[in-house]
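Quality-control log, excerpt.
Job 1 of 2 completed; input and output follow.
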Amino acid sequence: MARILVTGGAGYVGSHIVRVLLDRGRDVVVVDNLSEGNRAAIGDAPLIEADFGDETMLDRELAGGKVDFIVHMAASCEVGESMDRPDKYYANNLARSLRLLEAARRHEVRGIVFSSTAATYGEPLAVPITETHPQQPTNPYGETKLAFERALAWHQQAGGPGYVALRYFNAAGAHPDGSIGEDHHPESHIIPRLLRGVLEGQQEVPIFGNDWPTPDGTCVRDYVHVLDLAQAHVLAIDALDSGAVVAEAFNLGNGEGFSVLQVVESVGRVTGKRPPTRFAPRRAGDPATLVASSDKIRGALGWEPEFPELDAIISTAWNWHRTRPGGYG
């Protein structure tokens, strides 16, 4: 059985990928320094508590063909922070990732599934965005993710591992059984902030800009349930394993965008209480609208979201937050 190493596997999306892999009986090992992740999120999966770019650790864990595939989730992922701290994003998302890639090539890892982002596209020229859309990032987060995508392509051409880059949009929701979910400190994502606002009656949640060129003036995003993202990563591993895919990029999205105000309204419907909000200035580096076309991965790998409706996505997140108000504790 192929062994799969998941970097950042104790994080929000990574833990859901680990859960799906374990549920399917796959051989999984997690690498996470727990700076952002939670040990409790990965259950009984073996954990190597280390930086994913630690070359000594990588040589030890990858030597002798012990790992067949890598799912690379570990990254810094805040657009606003990347505008203030580009050094952090180049160091983590690119320099460390290159060390991981070079180790994977050195030890003949067969394939890498890379957690990329819609931020590589920048401000869209057309919506929905397809994989052929020009990639012109407007922030260091997207720029560093794109740089690693290109590194994957060049390494593959030079005899390195095959790869699938998954460019996804806004991850949201939680496992339907309520056992794992989103637990960031501090939290910057809009859905958990709104839900915590309902639960805790905390200060108003900022909505960054109400003068965008969108129907209601607030940013429009394509929200994808975290478990649907996890299923796509597993499909990508299987495609690399079978040889159906060698070097490819896919978008992951519902194909339908929702504005921030529509998300606020959905939270109100699901919880029965409208969350406290306030308008704030735009954030640097934010595009007005990001909506994906996921036709390519649906056709090539048979991916089909199980939770396409916004209220359904938010309902699973609400179940997690209301039953685990302290997160993982």
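Job 2 of 2 completed; input and output follow.
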Amino acid sequence: MNRVIWWIRRDIRLQNNTALNAALEYSEQVIPLFILDERLFASNTIGKKRKQFLIHALQDLDRNLRKYNSYLIIRKGKPEYILSKIIEELEISMVFSEPDFTPYALQRDQRISELIPIQWEGSPYYHPPGSIIKQDRTPYIVFTPFSKAWKGMPFSYSQSKNNPVRPLNTPKNIDSEMLELNTHYTNENLFPANEAIAQQRLSKFTEQDYQSENPVRSSIFAYKQERDRVDLDGTSKLSPYLRFGLLSIRQVVHSAQKAIQLANQPQNREAAQIWLNELIWREFYGHILYHFPKVHKENFRLSNIEWKNDHEEFNAWKLGETGYPLIDAAMHQLQQTGWMHNRARMIVASFLTKDLLIDWRWGEHWFMQHLIDGDPASNNGGWQWTAGTGTDATPYFRIFNPITQSKKYDPLGRYIRHWIPTLSKIPDAFIHEPWKMPDDIQRETNCVLGSDYPFPIIDHQFARQRALNMYKSL
């Protein structure tokens, strides 16, 4: 019988899976294969929490496959070697897989295409990198014109539908490695690695009352008002599911488009459009990394910045011991959960690159070690945007003030108190600037500065002027 492989990479799902659907159209016997690429899995940019999420997502996929006369095959090693071996072993006629677009993936897949019969189907992006270029055949390097071009591309509703999954009829007893589950996944409540949960979250966030003048909190129609508040649950929290493909980007974009089209309240329509723009930023950074792979290791521009790179200050930033409560709370959230609110990501990145003048690559690497949703393109794009070195970078004079940002986006200090228990009893008047507390209040609240909580490691006004002088000189 004609047998094919569905090689799973960043599409760990059954619903709305173009590569799987193509495999099922081609053959009645499909072998789902995931290869633990040791070159990637051993990388120091892949932290424990992201590995845990991946392993649990694969477990969930295996359970789902068993409903369709199938199961997940795991092999460890170099993909080109594993694929060649299993093709010979099982007499495979074709491999179906979703392409990837990082520099490493492109080089790997080029080698594999020369060795085995493989058909690339689908994409982790709605419009794959390389598909949106200017009239002169050069890539966009500014977001706004890219966004306009992206929105002007054809939108296919039919490709966003969930096709019913048919039995895969995978042959029995194919050798498979065991998934290593020697560590407990600590984020089961925050980010369950589960396709059904991902579908539920998308539906809950996007399928609200399209006519309501008072949108439900934590919905797409409340996104404009709530998305920057670090103390509210105002974002979709879908990023880990998009990172590993537990959700199809086509389905997610369609859900956003549907909300825009059906909302009959202008404020709801605007909020949904803002959320769609965030998805387009993800697309933009994927295209940038594809066209300019150098950004993975180099500044896109301003290559002559002289970073200060103080190791002690970097360690204080990493550990959440800078003395600025919002910065420290965000860094604690990152270490404890593997996730950080997007507004907080911008603030801590600004503090590292502008206040401390530490190379954005140090922060980018730390994020990739800890983020469950750590994505090479989006993480790189966000850091270079904040540092002022990227394609569509923030102006050099935009330097986030960690105090005013804290007051604006965590006005009651709930986020700070949650992630820094030492500050839980601090009066509202001092929660954003604890160094202003009188000595008697420090003793009463068990938060003595310099002992229980650090003084600021740098004066922001001094740091801001220093950064302005440095960037102006460039």
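Post-run check on job 2. The domain at 3-122 is CATH 3.40.50.620 (Rossmann fold).
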